[in-house]
Amino acid sequence: MTLRWLYRRRFPSSVVGSLQERAVAKETDAILFTTEATPSLFNTVICPPVAQPPTWMETMGAAVGFSGVVVLLASTSDESAQTHHVTLAGNVSSLVGALVIIVYLEGGAACRQWMPLFIYSLSVTGFGAMYLAIASLVLEPSTSVLGLGPAALFGFFGNWQLFGLAFGAAFVAGFFGHACLNSVVVHVSPLLLAVSGLWEPLLGSYMGYLAGVQDEPDFMTLVAAPLLLGGALLVTLGGRKEATTTTGVLASVSRRNSLVVHV
């Protein structure tokens, strides 16, 4: 949102004027039988056709959601901090993951315009499993392809408890998470889906507690939950308001261009 706002400040032309120029250029290209160059991914994500700053509700929602994440981080116990050391590589990995999910959502929104849900989910899941297997073989020398041991790629088939955890995580996260996300990405803004990922610390804590791999969520987790959910709600409402405004501007410019062409 910050990069889009800076882009808007760098090119302070009005939205209506920009849309008019694009409409005229599109009509000229249609007459001359030419097409515009395909925009790059950077231009699509950072420099959208309607470059508008984030609404005040989106900005407030992002701030409220971030404060919830800060509360969760600040409530980390000393014992957990001693057993799980914070490293630069871990922080960089988290930052890269946050950036990759934005590209993933934008790319998914583009592919789902023409690709069926089953084909998209199958290809993404298949390639993801293949890349993780290759990375495990390269980065972890103890990993083996054959066998059912703890270090084997298919070792979860040799332990029913691990198989239940793996199957449950794959079914819940894959079906109710990944498949549902890609089914709605063509109907809602990728920004809303990215903000809804703030639910993950709360839901993940309870899932880990139910699976028996971590302690029960403490009181601070319940304090941070309303902040996370409230931030997502504010971003949702602000995004709908912005979408309505943009639709009205597009309709107004379309009617004006239609009158000019008929005259």
TrEMBL record:
Keywords: Membrane, Transmembrane, Transmembrane helix. It comes from the Eukaryota. The chain crosses the membrane at residues 56-74, 86-105, 117-139, 151-172, 179-199, 219-237. This is EamA domain-containing protein. It comes from Aphanomyces invadans.
